[in-house]
Amino acid sequence: MSTDTKPIIMHRPNHRIFASLLFLILFKGLSSFVIGQVPSESVKAFKVSKPPVIDGVLDEDIWKQAPSFSDFVTFIPDFGKTLPQHTKAWLAYDEENIYFAFDCQDPEPDKIKANVSARDAIIQDDWICLNIDSRFDQQALYAFYVNPLGIQMDTRFAAGKEDASIDLVWYSAGKLNDHGYIVEVKIPLKSLRFANGDPVSMGLLLERYVSRTATHVGYPHLDPTMGFNLLPQLMRVDYQGVKHYTLFEALPAITYTHKDIREGDKLVRDVRKPDLSLTLKYGITPDLILDATVNPDFSQVESDAGQVDVNLRYELYYPEKRPFFLEGREKFNIGATQASIVDPMMYLVNTRTIVNPISGVKFTGNIDKKNSIALLYGADELPRDSASGTRQFAHFPILRYKYNLKDDGYLGALYTGREASGSSNRVAGTDAQIRINKSSMLEYNLFGSQTTDSVSRRTSHAEGLYLHSETRDLIYGVSVKNIGTGFDVSTGYITRTGISQATALIHPMFYTKSGPFRRFDLELFSSATYDQIYSMWETTDHASILALLGGTVQLKFKYSYSNEIFLSKRFNTSGLQVILQGRYKNWFSGTFSYRRTNAIYYSADPYGGMSNRLTFNAGFQPWPKFETTFSFTYSDFFRNSDQEKIYQYPIERLNLTYQFNKYLFIRGILEYNGYRKSLLTDFLVSFTYIPGTVCYLGYGSLYEQSEDSQPFIGRDIKPLEMQRGFFVKLSYLFRK
User: Fold this and answer.
1) Distance between CA 551 and CA 554 in Å, rounded?
2) 118 and 173 in contact (C-beta within 8 Å)?
3) pLDDT greater than 50 at residue 600
4) How far apart are CA 23 and CA 447, in angstroms?
5) Which pLDDT does position 342 carry in this prediction?
6) CATH label of the domain that carries residue 208
7) Is residue 50 part of a domain?
8) 296, 393, 427, 514 — which has fewest CB within 10 A?
9) pTM here?
C-alpha cells in the first residue's frame, strides 16, 4: 500500500464490475479457438496387492514388476543432455496410495550432498522430485522433494508461482550406498485432490537434481520450444480402481503463552494465556474440500526475519503461515499480476490482512473437469479502544471461480471484500491465462473496487495485459497496466495506485560447449510509468549479464537507468548492482549482493540521495546434522545536498540448528538490529511426527539499548531486557 499523500477523488458509481463479469461469460465462448493440448505420453500404472516397505531398500518384488523409467535428460541449465549420474525410477499403486522408487547412481558418491535437516530445508542438497498434476487439468501441480536421506520438502505450483508453505502428509525414506542413493516414497491419495471417475488420470514429471553441478534431469523429456512451461508436458498416468474416499481430519491444538514486558525498572506480567484452536477438514468428494476453523493456529514458531523498515514507500510483505489459509491458496493466484519487476499489483488475496481471525470457513476444489471454485470467509477481531471496549469484527468474504481452457489456460472471476462497522471494501472482476502456442501465454485482469466509509463512497478500476514467451534460447515479455488512483483492495498487497504502465523484457540465453562458462544470460528491460496523480512520467530501464560458471557459481552485473515520481517531484534512482552466488564442496553455500543507487528519502518534504544496500547469506554445514546459517543486511542513505548520512541500518541474523533425526531438532536464533539497537533471541525445540502432529517448546527475549547516544554494549549503560516469554504448543492430526 502506498504511503504517499493522495487527494480523495469522488466518483459516481459505474458498471465496470458488472461489465467485467459479462466479459468473462462472452470470452468463455472463445475458448474453442485456443491451441489444443500438447500430446503427452500415457502410462498405465502397476497395481499391487501388497504394499512395499518404505525403507530405502529395493528388495521387494514390486520393483521388479513395476514399470520403470530410465531415459532421464537435462532441462536445466540446458535441455536434452545425458549425465554420467544415471537415474532409474519405478511407479506402483494400490487402492489408497501411490508408490515411487528411485535408484540414483553417481560415479562419485562421496560428492553427493545429503544432510539430516528440518523438513523443507533440503533445497541445497541432492534430491529427487515428483511433480504431480493430481487432477490432470494442467492448472496446478504438487511437488514432492526428497533428499538422499529421506528428508522431505513439498510445494504447490499454479499460475507460474511456486508456494513452499504447504505441508502434506506423505512418507519417504532414503539411503546412501556405494553407487549413489536409493529413495522410496508413499503418497496417500487422501493427501491429494483428484477427480472422480475410473480410471483416475494424473500428470507426472520425474525429476532429479545434482547439486554439485546445479543440473536438473527429468522424465518425460521437456520440449526446448516450450521452455519451463511444465504443466502441458507431463505424462499421463492412469490409476484403475482406486478408492474414492470421504476425507475427515480434525486438528486440535493447545498453546500456552507466558510473556513478561518491561515497565519502569522491572519485567512485569503481561500474558499468561492458554489458547485452544480447532481446524476441521471434510472431503465432500476427493476434489471438493470443506474446511472450518475456530481460533485458527498461527503456527509461527519463530519471529519473521527482520527487514529494513525505514524510508519505505509501501508496507513490507510477510508470507502466510497459518495452516487453515493454505489449503487451495493457489486458486487465488491472478493472471497478469507480478508481470514485471515494477508491477505494483502483487496479490489481490493476501490472507495475512486477516490479522486476528476468530473463525473461518473455506470450500475449495473442482466441480468437474472444467469448473473450480474457492470460497473463503474469515471473521477478524479488531483491536479494542480499551480493555473494557466492545468487541468489533471485520468480515472477509472471498469468492473465486475458474473455468479451465485447453492446456494450462483458464478464465477466472474473483470477488473479495472486507465488511466492518461503518466501512466496506469490495472488489470484483475477471482474469485469464490463454496459451497462444507452445511457448507463449497471454494473461489479463480487469477489476473494479468500491470503498465506502462514513464520509464518502469511492469507485475505481484496474486493468492489466501481459504477453510472455519462454523457450530454450529466449524469454520475452510485454505488459500494459492501469491502476486507478482510488483502486483499493483491503484483502490484497498492492504497492502503488494511480499509475498507467507499459513494460518490455527480452532475455536471450547463450550456451557454451566447453570451458569454465556454461551459459550467458543477457537481459534488457524497459518500462514507462505515468503517474496519474501528478501527471508526470517516470522510467525504469536496465541491462544485465548473468554468467553460469562451473557447477554452481553465478555472477551477475546489472546497470539501471531509472527515475521515480514522489509528491510531484522526479528523482533519479539509477545505479549498479552485482550478485555472486555459489557453493564450495558440500559444506558451504553463499550469496552476496551489492547495490549502489541514487535514491529518495520518503517524507513530507522528500529529497534525493545516494544509497548502498548489501546482503550476504551463508550456510555452513560441517556435519550432516549440524547447520549454521548467517545473514547480513545493510542499508544506508546519504543526502545529496550536503552528503550527510541520514541513516545506516544493519541487521545480522545467526541461526544454529542441530537435527537429531528427521523428527526432532533444536534451534537457536540471534538477530541484532543495529538501527534499533536491539537483540532478539529465539530458542526452539521442535518435534514433528507428521504435519499437524507436533510438539513445540520455545523461548524468546528482546533486549534494547535505551540511550540513543550509547552503543548496544561496551559502555556504562547496558541494554535492558524489554520482553521475555516462552510457549508450549501441542497439536495432533486425527485423520480418517
Assistant:
1) 9
2) no
3) yes
4) 12
5) 96
6) 2.60.40.1190
7) yes
8) 514
9) 0.87
Q: What is the DSSP letter of 20?
A: H
For 440-467, give one letter per residue: b (16+ CB within 10 A) or e: bbbbbbbbbbbbeeeeeebbbbbbbbbb
Dump pLDDT digits (tens) for 492-545: 999 999 999 999 999 999 999 877 889 999 999 999 999 999 999 999 999 999
Determine phi and psi for 437, rounding to 5 degrees: -150, -170
**Residue 300: predicted pLDDT:** 55
Only one residue has cell 530405502, namely 56
Q: Amino acid identity of 258?
A: H
Provide the 10 A C-beta neighbour count for residue 530.
16
- Per-residue pLDDT, averaged over 51-72, amounts to 93
How deeply is 104 buried, as exposed, middle or buried, from its count of CB atoms within 10 A (0-12, 13-18, 19+)? buried
Q: Which residues make Cβ contacts (< 8 Å) with residue 262, sequence separation at least 6?
A: 268, 720, 721, 722, 723
Radius of gyration of the chain (CA): 27
Instruction: Express each pLDDT in 615-625 by its tens digit.
Output: 999 999 888 89
In a domain, 186, yes or no: yes
Is there a domain that residue 216 lies in? yes
User: What per-residue confidence (pLDDT) applies to 319?
Assistant: 80
Kindly list the distances between the CA atom of residue 353 and the CA atoms of 3, 276, 517, in Å, as whole numbers in the listed order: 17, 22, 45
State the total domains in the chain: 1
Asked whether residue 190 is assigned to any structural domain, the reply reads yes
Cell of 130: 515428483
Q: How far apart are CA 385 and CA 326, in angstroms?
A: 31
Please say if the pLDDT value at position 18 is more than 60. Answer: no
Half-sphere exposure of 108 (CA within 13 A, CB side): 12
- The full DSSP string for 548-577 is EETTTEEEEEEEEEEEEEETTEEEE--EEE
Instruction: Using the predicted structure, report yes or no on whether residue 3 has a pLDDT greater than 80.
Output: no
Quick check: 190 pLDDT over 50?
A: yes
- What secondary structure letter does DSSP report for 732? -
What's the distance, CA 605 to chain centroid?
A: 36
Query: With bands split at pLDDT 50, 70 and 90, how would you rate the model's confidence at 20?
Result: very low
Write out the residue range of the structural domain in which residue 172 sits: 34-239
Would you state the pLDDT for residue 328? 79
20 alpha-carbon distance from chain centroid: 29
Per-residue pLDDT band for 39 (boundaries 50, 70, 90) equals very low
Identify residue 545 by its one-letter amino acid code. I
Q: How far apart are CA 624 and CA 659, in angstroms?
A: 9
Return the C-alpha torsion angle 258, 259, 263, 267, nearest 10.
Answer: 60
First CA to last CA distance, the chain: 43
Residue with cell 498416468: 237
**Cβ proximity of 460 and 485 under 8 Å:** yes
Residue 582 CB-half CA count within 13 A: 15
Mean pLDDT of the chain: 90
Contacts of residues 309-314 at CB distance under 8 Å and 24 or more positions apart, as own/partner, are: 310/647, 310/649, 310/675, 311/601, 311/602, 311/637, 311/647, 312/3, 312/602, 313/2, 313/3, 313/4, 313/495, 313/496, 313/566, 313/600, 313/602, 314/1, 314/2, 314/3, 314/344, 314/495, 314/496
Is residue 38 pLDDT above 60, yes or no? no
Enclosing H/E stretch for 366: strand 357-366
Phi, psi of 109 (to 5 degrees): -65, -25
| Cα distance between residue 643 and residue 636, in whole Å | 12
Q: What is the mean pLDDT of residues 219-234?
A: 91
| 692 in Cβ contact with 732 (< 8 Å) | yes
* CA distances, 621 to each of 44, 175, 209, 212, 519 (Å): 42, 19, 19, 15, 28
> Alpha-carbon distance 518 to 77, whole Å?
8
| pLDDT value of position 648 | 96
Percent of the chain with pLDDT over 90: 73
Q: Which residues pair with 400 in a beta bridge?
A: 374, 414
